[in-house]
Design brief:
Order of helices and strands: HEHHEEHEHHEHEEEHH
Number of domains: 2
Oligomer: single chain
Helix content: 40-55%
Distance between the termini: 21 Å
Structural class: alpha+beta
Strand content: 15-25%
Number of strands: 8
Amino acid sequence: MKYISPKTYAVIHKILELVDFSQTKLREQTKVSLGRINSIIKSLEESRTVVKSSGTYRLERPNFLIKEVSSQVKIRKKYEFSVNMPKKDFLKEMQQHNGVFCLFSSLELIKDYSDEQIHIYYNDEIISWIKSLPLGNTTINIYESNLGIFPFEIKKGSTDFIRTLIDLKSVGFTQDLSKPILEKWKTLQ
């Protein structure tokens, strides 16, 4: 299955978010056709990623699903800039230019993690603004992804928890993320 086609990804993301769901609920919340939702769920049932019980479904293997999606995501660094602005100030200003944190900058918001560099997704507005800044010592990494960015996965100027995990796995990040994963999906695998 191609997990990263826009409609399929919207459904997968919603399944990861809800854990317990019905096809009707997915339809209402994603606006994807019931035919496509049914096809996605059948595929996920075959891999025992979701199970049906009493007319509803439950996500049983979130780690497996994240791994499968991330295997199709390709992220590449498009630009690297060094600017003369403290990281804290840059982070405040960036949101006024529609910047979206990703990868390690998003991870800082999820768990106790620190990175001196700033990681954001590409957009024309952010590039124009960064190019107008004087050169300095704050490193800004700009990325592109074949998955794109969807409004439903942006929270407070950063990729949400689910997208951050997918992105980190896609770039081979190996640091232990079991604590935030367990907090999100409790007793699930």
